[in-house]
Write a structure and sequence with these properties.
The chain has 232 residues and is of the alpha+beta class. The protein has two domains: 1-112, Aminohydrolase, N-terminal nucleophile (Ntn) domain (Glutamine Phosphoribosylpyrophosphate, subunit 1, domain 1, 4-Layer Sandwich), CATH 3.60.20.10; 114-202, no CATH class. 40% of the residues lie in helices and 17% in strands. The strands form two sheets. It has a five-stranded antiparallel β-sheet. Strands 6-7 form a two-stranded antiparallel sheet. Helix 1 crosses helix 3 (46-66), helix 4 packs across helix 5 and helix 5 crosses helix 6 (179-202). It starts with 8 loop residues before the first strand and ends in a 13-residue tail after the last helix. The model has no long low-confidence stretch (mean pLDDT 87).
């Protein structure tokens, strides 16, 4: 039996990340991070953390590319990742693309084969005004967004949902089977049930057409009767 792959990794006390690409490259990346964890924990700014991340990731990306045996139909192995962390009072999201470039994101980003679905899913939760929700509500919104992405993606993305939250208290992971995960899924299931009940209450029981269609008589066109006499 194949167990679900752990998608979220910790990087020191205040950073989590998830990667996309080859598993072997991901293992190299993880091993490389071991040497910079003390620097990341001591960093006072997001820029300092980003510099440590790039110092590990980019050389490994270049190393893997240099080892690529260019056989017909083959392609080089790649790796990219999204990092979320806290530096001082600043919370941030940082991405290293599979081709090497990196950047900070203000609110949201996605990568991997499901990134297009994830961006579409974001539009489905915008109306919840996430920034002004409680942390518990935000966890539920994030869970449903990830669940939708996993379910709707054609390939390469699968359940169960894995979630990590970074707050002033540190990192909290939500993994299937754990008590906090069970509590979160119970909240999400209750929310889904209430959505169904609410729709049933507010939806009209009898549909009224928004537009009144003309009757058959109003559609009738009186054509001239052909009496057999030609005219010129």
């Amino acid at each position: 039996m194949k167990l679900p792959t752990k998608k979220i990794e910790r990087l020191g006390r205040n950073v989590v990340y998830a990667g996309t690409g080859g598993q072997g490259v991901g293992q190299l990346i993880q091993a490389g991070f071991a040497s910079v964890i003390p620097q990341i924990d001591a960093a006072v700014s997001a820029a300092d953390v980003a510099a440590c991340i790039v110092s590990v990731v980019n050389p490994i990306q270049q190393l893997v590319l240099s080892r690529w045996v260019q056989l017909p139909g083959s392609s080089p192995d790649v790796w990219g990742g999204i990092f979320c962390g806290k530096s001082g009072d600043d919370f941030w999201i940082y991405e290293v693309d599979v081709s090497g470039p990196s950047q900070f994101h203000q609110v949201f980003t996605a990568t991997g084969s499901g990134h297009a679905v994830a961006h579409a899913t974001l539009m489905n939760v915008m109306h919840f005004d996430v920034a002004n929700q409680s942390l518990e509500a935000t966890k539920a919104i994030a869970y449903r967004a990830i669940e939708t992405t996993c379910t709707a993606s054609a390939y390469g993305v699968g359940l169960p949902v894995q979630l990590a939250v970074i707050s002033s208290s540190g990192i909290e992971e939500f993994l299937e089977g754990e008590e906090n995960y069970i509590e979160l899924t119970e909240l999400v299931n209750l929310w889904k049930q209430l959505e169904v009940e609410t729709l049933g209450k507010v939806a009209p029981t009898q549909l009224t057409p928004a537009v009144e269609f003309p009757t058959t008589e109003e559609f009738t066109i009186n054509f001239p009767i052909d009496d057999g006499q030609a005219s010129a």
